[in-house]
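Lab channel / #folding
Pinned by the channel admin:
"Please post every new chain as: sequence first, then the structure tokens as a reply. Keep commentary short and put observations after the output so the thread stays searchable."

First post following the new format, from NK:
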Amino acid sequence: MSSRNKRFRSLALVAAPLFAWSVAACLSTPTPLTGDGGADGAGPVVTRPDAGTVTSADASHTGDATTAHTSDGASPDVASPPDVGTVQLDAAIDGPVPMVDAYIRGDGGPSRCTITSTEVNCTEQQLTINTPAGSDSAAGTSYPAYARLVYYQVPLGTPPAAGWPAVFMFQGSFLSAQYTFAATTSEDFGMYYQSELVKVLLDSGYAVLAPETLESGETYWQTNVSPYATAWSGAPDDLLIQMMLADVASGAFGPLDATTLFATGISSGGYMTSRMAVSYEGRFKALAIESGSYATCISSDCTVPALSSTHPPTLFLHGDEDTVIVPESTVTAYETALTAAGVVFKEVDDANSGHQWIPEAPAAVLAWFNTYR
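Reply from TO:
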């Protein structure tokens, strides 16, 4: 990777929330973004690995599903993965730091990923989903068709009869989802721990799906941006999620279990993770929010409404030194609303971390999802 790209990745998350905060009012009547336009006048088109394209008149994508192939051409159905051991996670809020079994840290065994003390690399596949053009007269918005890229991978081994459980992993602002599957310790925002999380999830039998934001991942999620924060239905990002859910069910990403889904993400992706609870009730079993808060919050501007008791159990990951971009008070406000709704949650903090994936994230997220799998 070039030094320019590394520097860009180092600056992106810090700039993004403050940038989104400053431009939110200017986006009440957004102009169409360029560079991701799909075929005009046609229905949504989903490009499937090694299978050409499938066109549908709506977002359901029924039929014509194909089994995904690995990026190196091998079938996912190889030897069953070995026992990866256990991960300890204390049930109390702000409890002890969870520990990861040595195998998961990379001490042997078949894996989609390689890991050292300084670098993680995981193979990945890609699927392009074209969302249709649309408009919302009430919100005063219109937008073109977009080609949305999803990076993903399935575990090694034979899938369960119902398919692999799957994790939607949402990128931070301006940090393309292509960076989800590989990182080094020299990069800011704890990107190494994000890629380590991908590894432990894959090694533990979870598929990982990482969609990009608009403009090839060089923007941010629309969940807390006007007018979509309060007019989400039919927004470009909403259409993307609807179509991803349909493609999970149809087998476009391989043999996945559409009834066992989880979500996680950092910063803008953390707010987007919350959006999965707000707008897709009953679809996700548990959430893990890194350096983020409620779906419509931005930085310290955070009002959390009364929540439904059906909100998924939620894990919060936060660096104590993140006092400006996502203040602890916004996490507390979310937790207060979850308490009132009777929803289980946990917070894992790291005293030496700022706005980043904290070192505890790989073990904590895996253990949290395992609890509700």
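NK: Confidence is low (pLDDT under 50) at residues 1-12, 14-107.
TO: also worth noting, The helical segments are 3-23, 191-203, 236-250, 268-279, 328-341, 361-372.
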